[in-house]
Amino acid sequence: EAVLRAFGYWERNTREEHAEVREILEAALARGPGHSDCLAELSLIYWAEYAFGYNVRPDSLGRARAAAQRAVASAPTSHFAHSALATALFFQKDFQAFRAAADRALALNRMDSSTAALLGTMIGSAGDWEHGLEVVERAKQLNPHHPGWYHYLAFDDAYHKRDYRGALA
From CA 133, how far away is CA 156, in angstroms rounded? Predict the structure, then answer.
């Protein structure tokens, strides 16, 4: 229930919802400390403290990384856990470790278009534009009705190449 509630946070994405979901996930983990999906989702909630400035506590990214590492330890074959770890590592600018976690997440579940689009965007932003673009393109093929944010990397790529018509498209 805590994980499902956390999924709902990403649809609403408000400061109030963030605080409530963080509390719910932390309480759930107090009862079941090894629940990988709760740990992965909590890692992303801690990341949101950093990214959006919601309800910030000290060392948001350090806590995000620690929760994701616990998620991976609890469920080594969970693409969700590896994706959460990749996200924390990316924002800590540990790009070598990020890439290993991202590649593992993508290998574990090739059918999750949202994870592929997110990780592909980060792979490209970390400097491997061509591979990142390929990963995002596969995500678009998996979900032909994808959300608009799947285009971020292609926009950045076109803009950096001074292809302003391509960026606008």
Answer: 10
Q: How far apart are the first and last CA of the chain?
A: 40
Is the pTM value of this prediction over 0.90? yes
Taking alpha carbons only, the member of 94, 91, 20 closest to residue 59 is: 91
Q: What is the pLDDT of residues 104-143, one digit of tens each?
A: 999 999 999 999 999 999 999 999 999 999 999 999 999 9
Q: Of 69, 7, 65, which is closest to residue 36 (Cα–Cα)?
A: 69
Within 8 A by CB and 6+ apart from 105, the residues are 79, 80, 82, 83, 85, 86, 115, 119
How many helices (H) and strands (E) the chain has is answered by 10, 0
HSE on the CB side for 136, CA within 13 Å? 25
Query: In whole angstroms, what is the distance from residue 128 CA to residue 120 CA?
Result: 9
pLDDT (tens digit, 9 = 90+) per residue, 8-65? 999 889 999 999 999 999 999 999 999 999 999 999 999 999 999 999 999 999 999 9
User: Can you tell me which residue has the tokens 């302003």?
Assistant: 164
Q: For residues 168 and 137, give the distance between their C-alpha atoms in angstroms, rounded to a whole number.
A: 18
